[in-house]
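REQUEST FORM: STRUCTURE PREDICTION
Request ID: SP-0412
Submitted by: Lab K.M.
Chain count: 1
Length (residues): 841
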Amino acid sequence: MEETCIFRSALLFEKVPTGRSKDKSTFECMEWFCNNLYIGLKDGVVLYLNVGRWSGGEQPERVREVGRRQMGRGGAVIQLKVLPVLNHLLVFWDSSITVLNMFSLEPIPGLKKIQNISVFGASHLASAFSQPVFVSLITASSRRRALSVHHIYVDRWETVGHVALPQDPVALGVCESCVCVATSDRYILHDHVIQNTLHLFTHNHGKRNIIVKESGKREFLLNGPGNLGMFVTKDGVSEHPPVQWPEGVLDAAVHFPYVLALQSQMVFIYSILDQKLKQSVSVHNAKALLSSTEGVFVVCEREIHCLTQSPLEDQVEGLLANERLDEALTLLDGVQTRLPPDSYENMHRNIICTSGWIHFYREAFPEAEELFIKSGLDPREIISLYPEMTVLSSDFKSQRPLVSNAKDLWTLSKEDWTTFQQYLSFLCHFLREIRGTTQGQVCPQDIDTALFQLYLRQEDQKNLELLVSCPNDCILQVCVSELEHHKRFFTIGQLYQSHGQHLKAIQTWVDIVEGVCVDLQPGVFQHIVNTLCQLKQKFIIMKFIDWVLQRDQKVGVSIFTKRVPNDQSMFAPEEVLTFLANFPAALSLYLEYLVHELHSKEEKHHTLLATTYISQILQPGQSTLDREVDAGIREKLQQLLWQSSIYSTDAVQMTIQSSALHVGKAILLGRAGHHREALAILVNQEKDQQAAENYCRRTSAGQGQEFTQQLFLCLLQVYLGSSQRAAEAVDLLNNNVHTFNPLRVLPVLPGSWSLQLLRRFLCESLRETVHEKRMRNLEMNLAKVENLRHKHAWMEATQQKVRLDRSCVCECCRRQLSGPGFLRRKSGELIHTHCYFAENH
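STATUS: Completed
RESULT:
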């Protein structure tokens, strides 16, 4: 894998030999604070340099020597530590700690040496809650196995405690009040404030290559067993997996999110996030590392180098350019808190999007779609890849990343059509998924137009109609042109309709029905009618209603009768009736709608419906089919005349008078009370015995037996008025015995009729009469029995004497008992007689 350049190395300072003799004094350690560089030399010299204006990166233009301090005749300066809050510089040499002023390098009066020291460490933080201010210093004596805790003030220091150790300390680090100590075989944590000790783990390094470095807030970096760089917090837990680094590591430092391991000739840089080696930097005779905000300083024998980390954004972009997406995402998520929110979001989106493109060209379409949606990819980036799918937005500028496995879909469509079809299917599905979402609102016209073109070219009729019949953002000029090329005129109308251009839509469909445009779509005429039923633009309806009614009156009238209830007020009934005057079939249907569905109480509507029926029936030159329709209209007319009580009898009578509609005439005469005339018409002119009997039954319904007998007797007399209708008269008597009173029938019968002719009628009449008489007798006797039962109950209740006073009340109505009108129940309770009978009835 190609190595990424994360840290750039710059020479910060180089010691130039002086004189002819070889300078044997080399660098041993260094300290850095705000462009102030302190170097400890092998010959006991502390060198103080100022780097000037420099923030890392390139080699500084100027490094000026500010001061120099010779600590003694011999002995190397092993460690330097700056305490900025006190302006102190701690110098560890010759097994002792000397305190100098960090600017003048002069000793501080009152701060004597701390001698017999093997290792030391100081807290980075001063105590902010105490006056005067002090810094905690931890030292380990070379004479005894113990740690000493000191408080360093501006002009003095004092020892505040000791901590015993099981072995000699080799190295230590300090983080606030916690000290991490390394002995020859183990690591130990100790908090000198709460006096808590925790043994971590053992190691196998002896007294060499032991590393204890502060790696950040509340955390230490240790060289664990098996050459593992281990992170341990002050609570004794590890929040990061260990890093496997090479043998012989001299020093290590953390510069988040990386850990640097130093060998004599090489610096190895590992990621804390995924524990992988990211970079290696060659050095010469290196000795120590020091991490600071400017970078990581590398102390060599005669040189000081600074490894400066490139911006995190550049690192992510570099990994992204090399398609190391997993590493880029791991790095980005690990440093999220160190980046501005907008920068993080943009980089995260770019990583996800690039990963989506790689999956896209691998034909892993479900994964690609998920990543494109997650990254919020501009849909035009994908649309622009496809042949004949142009992006219509003028403000679009492609920002598609370059990936190594990219394909040319134009070439693919010519060489491998099967695979290209899969890419087309992906585009359809992807555009459908984001349509209507926030991601799709970036370019709704491009999305809908692209979907339209895909459906049209793939002949996906179902999805095409679903798209154009619902609200959409298709560009009309482009889509109409393509539909005309494919002879899809019905779809053109749907597209116009979805864009609110109803006049153009209906005119396009009318041209199809008239044959001006050829389209095989079925049911276009009905679709026009359905559209007009739903339209709210009255002027458009009026423009096409005449054309619709001329083609089909029965279908056309639904434009008025099947409108949404809230739209009924658009057309007043009188306006519609005036318009439909020239269309009788549509007129009758609309009147039926007014009368039967809207339950109109207007006399005009009922009368006009009746006269319209009559006019339709009386039309000359009817075919067989028309005669079947005529029978239905006659039935409707009769039902209307029977059921409606609102129409004008005189107006209908005037219309029907000269016609042969005898049943209608009879119904009208019956409405006027002329039943004999009505029956005469049905018998003599209509010559329909069944119609005459039905007239009697329907007219007498709910009128009582007397009226029914009188009406049937009237019909019998009409039959008897003609000698040729004797058979009908006999049938009427025999079939309707219960509707005749024999006492009234016998006087009107001709004397020439024989008893044999009337035998059936007389027998059944007599049987009916006897039956009725017996039933009346039975009912009377049952009533008598009931009366006797109540008398018996009353007698039983009154056999005992009862003394009445004002306290005696009826148990039912609670009124006072007085007089003989009471009785006693079997339970002994007294009750008024009328209350007793009321309970039992």
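NOTES: The longest helix spans residues 759-797.
Reviewed by: T.R.
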